[in-house]
Write a structure and sequence with these properties.
two-stranded antiparallel ribbon; 19 helices
């Protein structure tokens, strides 16, 4: 029996060592080799983002808003220097991808992931050091929108940390405009905005509406996660586009963002975009730890008033005594400062002013809008002169009623006011068009 017992003990020990070694070897196959720091340290371009001049300084084609001449997608941050395995996050991401492949492809992860690696740490350091002043301004502005954004994301089953995509995109500036034409908190291009239900035309640009654009961003991010199964890849696609990330995955043969970032398949801007979001998220989870305060801004009290079509805000202001700047500030979506044609418009006005505005709109007190606001939806091949001829009105009236210059372009889908044909014809001594 003693001999048999010793034999069994040795066999058990051998099997344990063999099994341990096998596990170690299997795990080692997933761990990348250690690369020198310069191979993973992101390079930062000193680009500047264009911001609406009425609010902020100028900006850039990249899409993420930067103020005070801060570089594009270079929003600096964080504090204690922590030594982190540069590849730990990549291994964790691979594990999450394996899990998500077995799970529902649209089931959102509980967190967008703010893991630390050398890239993230680099931006954490910058955000709390040389870029601290810019980041402090952004967190100061965040109080106006952060709760609304987090509520919207949560209501759609998305990680609340995705709010910091908007921070890196626009610095929580709702009227940020890039040189490429991306606008708003979420820096939507016009085509993507329309795809997700936002109205973008010559009259209204809902990319500048914080609530509506956040709803569109939530839907877009959810679709990107469903497509790629990773929040890091979803964020990269938000910046670079779905096809760019898909091509990068095919080229590298990996669905690990950090592997893509080590290749030449993505532009520097996108490689930096994702770790900046992670860095901002880490700070946002406990801003006071890093010396930042989220600004406490009480929501602006507003009321809504139904305004006739094609009514200019300056006309309303003069008639009611409400500041034009106040009306423009509450309604940045009105591109020309004019309510759109096609029916009454629900205008935001400062709390306590609706009665004065309604009195100004009372019958017998015209605000200067055409008395009969007919509209024409532009079709392919339409021209201003052709539209004017069709309705029997002067070209100058079409231009004036639609706040257009003679050199402005019209495009299919635009709505043009072709109103008050009687007044136009009577003034010009022409017969009424039939």
């Amino acid at each position: 029996m003693p001999i048999r017992a010793r034999f069994l003990l040795r066999v058990t020990s051998f099997l344990f060592v063999l099994t341990s070694g096998t596990v170690s070897l299997a795990a080692a196959e997933f761990l990348p080799f250690s690369a020198p720091e310069e191979a993973v340290r992101p390079l930062v371009r000193d680009e500047v983002i264009s911001i609406d001049p009425s609010v902020e300084p100028l900006g850039d084609e990249g899409g993420s808003a930067v103020e005070d001449q801060a570089p594009t997608h270079d929003h600096s941050a964080w504090h204690p220097r922590i030594e982190v395995d540069a590849w730990a996050e990549a291994f964790a991401e691979s594990s999450r991808l394996a899990w998500s492949a077995a799970a529902s492809p649209i089931a959102p992860a509980p967190s967008a992931g703010a893991g630390l690696n050398q890239q993230v740490q680099y931006f954490l350091d910058r955000f709390t050091r040389e870029r601290r002043q810019v980041i402090d301004k952004w967190f100061g502005r965040a109080g106006r929108y952060l709760e609304m954004i987090r509520d919207t994301l949560r209501d759609h089953g998305l990680p609340e940390d995705l709010a910091f995509v908007a921070m890196i995109e626009s610095g929580f500036n709702p009227v940020a405009v890039s040189r490429a034409g991306a606008k708003g908190l979420w820096q939507f291009m016009a085509g993507t905005a329309r795809r997700y239900g936002l109205r973008v035309d010559q009259w209204v640009d809902e990319r500048l509406d914080p609530e509506k654009s956040t709803l569109a961003a939530a839907a877009y991010l959810r679709d990107l996660y469903a497509q790629f199964g990773s929040w890091s890849l979803a964020q990269a696609a938000y910046n670079a586009g779905e096809m760019t990330v898909t091509r990068a995955i095919r080229s590298v043969g990996s669905k690990d963002f950090w592997a893509l970032a080590r290749s030449s398949s993505l532009k520097r801007e996108t490689k930096d975009f994702v770790p900046q979001i992670h860095a901002a998220t880490v700070i946002g989870q406990d801003p006071s730890r890093y010396g930042f305060d989220v600004g406490g801004h009480a929501p602006t009290d507003v009321e809504f008033v139904s305004i006739p079509a094609t009514t200019h805000l300056t006309t309303i202001a003069k008639a009611s005594g409400v500041s034009t700047d106040a009306l423009r500030g509450l309604n940045p979506v009105l591109v020309k400062g004019v309510t759109p044609p096609g029916g009454a418009y629900r205008l935001r006005v400062p709390a306590g002013t609706s009665a004065a505005i309604q009195a100004a709109l009372a019958p017998g007190k015209p605000l200067g809008a055409p008395s009969r606001a007919d509209t024409h939806v532009v079709r392919p091949g339409d021209t201003v002169s052709g539209i004017a001829k069709r309705y029997g009105i002067a070209v100058g009236d079409v231009l004036r009623w639609n706040h257009l210059a003679a050199s402005d372009f019209i495009r299919p889908g635009d709505r043009l006011v072709v109103a008050d044909r009687r007044l136009s014809a009577a003034r010009d001594g022409q017969p009424l068009a039939r």
